[in-house]
């Protein structure tokens, strides 16, 4: 019987094969159409990720020309007498080394010398979908679909991520309350399984694999193609920010706005997010192009609880043909909210510019040498019933009055999430995404060092455990079976084990 092979890719690596060394030249016999590289530069790129918390030592990097290249490589690993690990890497935006491997092969899904030979994005105007290579970046998908006046329905805040990477997690942003996460907007997938089979799956064909792979953290295969649902793309966006000093008022307004998800487009916003402001410099520096430098926001001039403010971000999409009614629709919606008077900040921009807004911030940080630094991010799903306790214990407690990056907080409707997928969310109808998107710096400030922020993440998780706040980690990373079992819970753990056994012939 072939040696069991645990495919390690995307977001989590449960078991790592160690203690041997294979020779990449042996893989040349596979007849790959792509490029199998052992060049120092390629290995170096594949040895790090956005998190910057770990390093790996891959033996080779495959730039596949086709999905069949990936299938051949994975089958070779599965059939190998020794076994070796394979890791799929998109844009390398993983945090805890999940897109890397040591003494194995990294499949470079995005870019590479053979990228033009891969599946090109194909758009169906009639059926409103796009067939996309799993390593394609969402920014490139958007560019292709806009040629037809169309765009995907659901997004992440950052578009320089691969399609396969976000679909292996969930893919969320401020549109999720309305359209659900990205995994809810997929019609079909091509997946290379852990046995090296290239299978097409959908609701009707190989449905168990389809739902397992969506949000499956790479544990059920490598997504090589996705059929993405599209909608008519708006032309422009009215982007609005309002401020709150009272947390309960802030959350009540957010929850009211997402409750409108079933209403006609004229009676709801298209995007609802929020973030926490614990440091006066943050609101004026992060995505600072939003605010006018001549009119900076001053926390000290506002009455805030415990030195914390909350910012609600909302948008209204529109076409130039209906621009004359947008102001009235926005005014009607804003009248229902209880934000701080005179704290409304508004800008108007093309739809593409709004979707790509974080990339502009990236370019600014890169110019200052502040992008390629460690990112000890922590993303949590917090049940609505405990979000006020989380505010008191974390935002007003553990964080103090300083942070080194955005802290997102916004609610989602559970009924927009398909529970057949592998994603685990809290057992409440409304839950919050809280994202600590921080950067570790060596600028002499102890509160911005990697050790300090990592310890603070531990404090946050420990607080939730002690307070019995039943959080679920988004982009989870665990190292023991017990931790994974706690993450899934009894109901979903049994399903996960069964799927692993049936689809990958691996128990854990």
TrEMBL record:
Under InterPro entries, the record lists: Cytok_DH_C_sf, Cytokinin_DH_FAD/cytokin-bd, FAD-bd_PCMH, FAD-bd_PCMH-like_sf, FAD-bd_PCMH_sub1, FAD-bd_PCMH_sub2, FAD-linked_Oxase-like_C, FAD-linked_Oxidoreductases_BP
Q: Which residues form the FAD-binding PCMH-type domain?
A: 54-233
- Reaction catalyzed: N(6)-dimethylallyladenine + A + H2O = 3-methyl-2-butenal + adenine + AH2
- GO annotations under biological process? cytokinin metabolic process
Q: Which Pfam families did the record assign?
A: Cytokin-bind (PF09265), FAD_binding_4 (PF01565)
Q: Does the keyword Transcription apply?
A: no
The EC class name is: oxidoreductase
Write down the EC number. 1.5.99.12
Q: Which SUPFAM superfamilies match?
A: FAD-binding/transporter-associated domain-like, FAD-linked oxidases, C-terminal domain
- List the molecular function annotations (GO) for this entry: cytokinin dehydrogenase activity; FAD binding
Q: Which PROSITE patterns match?
A: FAD_PCMH, OX2_COVAL_FAD
* Alphabetically ordered keywords of this record: Disulfide bond, FAD, Flavoprotein, Glycoprotein, Oxidoreductase, Signal
The Swiss-Prot or TrEMBL record lists the needed cofactor(s) as: FAD
- For the keyword Chloroplast, the answer is no
Family as reported in the entry's similarity comment: Belongs to the oxygen-dependent FAD-linked oxidoreductase family.
What is the name attached to this protein's record? cytokinin dehydrogenase
Q: Can you name the source organism?
A: Nicotiana attenuata (Coyote tobacco)
